[in-house]
Structure formats: structure tokens, C-alpha cells
Amino acid sequence: MPILAIAAIGLAIFTTNRTAGPLILITRASDAVKEGNLDHRLRFRESDRHLKQLEVAFNDMMVSICGRADFGQPKDAEASASD
């Protein structure tokens, strides 16, 4: 019986790490962007290859945001520039 309990605990730790790890990375990436770090990119572990599509989408979004010509200009500056 103790072996079964140890195996169950090990499986619970493994499963939690596999689930929580990517969520922690996504949270950290979102926080970095919120704080103004637009160079931050999301990168999952090789073992999380099933999340590759999310990684690519996030990183493409950041490239698109950084590539906008009017990004970072206050709206008032845009209005006065067109006058």
C-alpha cells in the first residue's frame, strides 16, 4: 500500500508540473508585456511541444505589435501630426 501512495504522489507532482509550468510561463510573459517589455517572447520546454501553436501565435502577435509604425505614439501626437 505505501508504494501505491508514493506512486500516486509522484504522479500528482508530475501532472501538476506539466500543467502549471506552461501557465506560469504565459503569466510571466503577459506580465512582462504589461510592464512594457515588448521584446519578451514566449518559449515553452521541448516537452511542451503540444503548445507550439500558442507559442508561435504569441510571438507573432508581439512582432506585429512592435512592427506597427504608430506604436508608442500618444493619440494626441497623432492628431496634431495630421493637422
Which key terms come to mind for this protein?
single chain, 83 residues, mainly alpha, 67% helix
Explain this structure.
- The chain has one domain (2-71).
- The model has no long low-confidence stretch (mean pLDDT 83).
- It is mainly α and 83 residues long.
- The protein has helices at 2-34, 52-67, 75-81.
- 67% of the residues lie in helices and 0% in strands.
- The longest helix has 33 residues, at 2-34.
Which helices and strands occur, and which strands form pairs?
Layout: H1 2-34, H2 52-67, H3 75-81
Concise structural overview:
With 83 residues, the chain is an all-alpha fold. The protein has helices at 2-34, 52-67, 75-81.
**How many structural units, i.e. domains?**
1
Mean pLDDT over the full residue set = 83
Q: Give the termini separation.
A: 79 Å
Shape: elongated
Poorly predicted ranges: none
Taking Cα atoms only, what radius of gyration do you get, to the nearest Å? 20 Å
Number of strands: 0
Q: Given the structure, what is the number of helices? A: 3
> Proportion of β residues?
under 5%
The main pleated sheet reads as:
none
Helicity level? 55-70%
SSE arrangement, N to C: HHH
**Which structural category fits the helices and strands?**
mainly alpha
